[in-house]
Amino acid sequence: MAKSGYHHGNLREALVSACLRLIEEKGPTGFTLSEAAREAGVTPAAVYRHFEGRDDLIAEAARQGYEVFADMMEKAYGANHATALKAFEATGRAYLSFARQFPGHYVAMFESGISIQRDPHLSAVAHRALGVMEKAAMNLSAHIPADRRPPARMVSAHIWAMSHGVVELFARGSPGTKSPFPPEDLLETGVGIYLRGLGLIPADK
Amino acid sequence: MAKSGYHHGNLREALVSACLRLIEEKGPTGFTLSEAAREAGVTPAAVYRHFEGRDDLIAEAARQGYEVFADMMEKAYGANHATALKAFEATGRAYLSFARQFPGHYVAMFESGISIQRDPHLSAVAHRALGVMEKAAMNLSAHIPADRRPPARMVSAHIWAMSHGVVELFARGSPGTKSPFPPEDLLETGVGIYLRGLGLIPADK
DNA sequence: TGTACATCAGTGAACGCGCGTTCACTGATGTAC
DNA sequence: TGTACATCAGTGAACGCGCGTTCACTGATGTAC
């Protein structure tokens, strides 16, 4: 496009992209503002035209991530499913799929240490995303006899924990351990066993 | 003790402690070698008497963490339990308990990005620790009818994922979200439901 | 018990480096007439 | 269509700073006799 020396054209987005690439490569604290600027082909000082500093840049990356995440979750959940169970499983798959497709965003959102409350935009979109998980869990647990039904927020917390754990431990090569199983399988079977434990899947299926 | 200006007495350990405190406070990449030296009351140059550099220091912290972790897991598992199930549950509790008691070590081990293979000592002790989890899972799944028994390594991966997820998402205040439930409860109920799904706990218990 | 000497843990000065942030500036773009 | 001018995104030089790493050194400790 218009990359004629002066006037980058779309520097704001270019910086976010650079930030995401660097997060993917070196982790959320492993890069500098100057590095991001360099990656976008621009002087460090130019960054200040668009962001207040490094944290602000990461927060924007996280915000965009939550936006995409919320869309994916809503879409997965909203497609008309035969049962609440199917709908729930679809959101579980969407979670992992997001983490795989957008690792930089994922890290910015859940591992960068930026607070969800740092600005209202970020907070709003984060709640939209996490709300889908909870709603899916709520509808699902409505099928469990009321007297031994765990709170919906707890069910969603369990699933979230397992998903996050699979992503962190097995969907990245980080701890030098090779994953014993494909992360998709690991999550699918894990959630399956869990749901069977809730009495939502017949024991012999 | 002997902190008479020159000659610290036990600088190596003091540096590891400083490193752990800093990891707890600022994350695995959020501090510098000089900061650790300052925290131990010593010139940055003194660090090189004991470690090759920052990574080497973190690796030592992780190594010590794995050592303690392995001990705790072995002790929890080895206490004579009535059933394989009890033994398994005990190791699960030990995991969370370790993460709570030694957050700095936990981060150094699982979130610092240092490879388990960087030196043989580290690798050996890490395998000792992770081996306990696997053995517990193996003994446990021996109680499941062979034809619908998932591989033991998969069971231990599931439990590990859920444990790690609970620690990351709910046992720290990081993402600005307040935990909806105490992490201990979350893990205990989550694992309970999972085990019921495996057919190891009666459905109405 | 006392003295001479080897060992070695920690010092502090020095280096070159990249960082974040500021500032007055420059030059491309858009707009009014 | 052409010109004058306002806007504003990006420059580049400058600053002070803390970093990692090296080096010859110093002085406390342990040991041999």
Can you characterise this structure?
2 copies of one chain form a homodimer. Chain A contains 9 helices and no strands. In chain A, helix 5 runs antiparallel to helix 9. Chain A is an all-alpha fold and 205 residues long. Chain A has 2 domains: 51 residues, Arc Repressor Mutant, subunit A (Orthogonal Bundle), CATH 1.10.10.60; 140 residues, Tetracycline Repressor, domain 2 (Orthogonal Bundle), CATH 1.10.357. The interface between A and B is large, with 46 and 45 residues. Chain A binds a DNA duplex (33 and 33 nucleotides) through helix 3.
Q: What is shown here, in short?
A:
Chain A has helices spanning 11-26, 33-39, 44-47, 54-78, 84-101, 103-110, 120-141, 152-170, 183-197.
